[in-house]
Amino acid sequence: MSNIYFNESVILLNVEAISKEEVLEKMGQNLVDLDLVKESFIPAIIKREEEYATGLPTSGVAVAIPHTDVEHVHRKTVSIGVLDRAVEFGVMGDDEETIPVQIVFLLAMDEAHSQLSLLQQLMAVFQNEEVLLSILKEKNKSSIRGLLEEKLDFDALEGEK
């Protein structure tokens, strides 16, 4: 399988949006433009978010981890979107509740096992309020990239079956 693609081009700062759909469209279009995902990724990610909410009420800053099926992905990547103002996402596992999300971790994995492994690693990041606040306040994409490369073991996601 392909190596994970992660650099400043998939980190979006000050994302302006008024709805979760707009956030997902903007972040998804960036991945389409980079040829990391297929055009079908955008409607698929929006549809999946409607069916399975991904907002997480984490300490300090709420996050969302939208993802969809592997057939929409050319090359695995994680896109980070730091929103200029919070947008309501449904809370994972609760159809009734929403949460104001400020950081979106958009996952595009080309195999199911990689997605599970990455989700497990991200949960450790989400439990660290200091890291989330650093991402929210940071204005330098390289700094965010370095912080996440330090916290996530991308090598563990390589070539997993």
Would you kindly provide a written description of the structure presented here, covering whatever features stand out?
This protein is an alpha/beta fold. It has five helices and five strands, in the order βααββββααα. Strands 1-4-5-3-2 form a five-stranded mixed β-sheet. A hairpin with a 5-residue loop joins strand 2 (55-56) and strand 3 (62-64). Helix 1 (20-33) packs antiparallel against helix 2 (41-51). The relative contact order is 0.21. The mean pLDDT is 91.
Radius of gyration: 14 Å
Alpha-beta classification:
alpha/beta
**If you average the pLDDT, what whole number results?**
91
Distance between the termini: 8 Å
- β-sheet strand percentage: 15-25%
How many helices does DSSP assign? 5
* Strand order in the sheet with the most strands: 1-4-5-3-2
Low-confidence residue ranges? none
Gross morphology: globular
Strand element count: 5
Q: Sketch the topology as an H/E string, one letter per element.
A: EHHEEEEHHH
Q: Helical residue percent?
A: 25-40%
Largest sheet: 5 strands, mixed
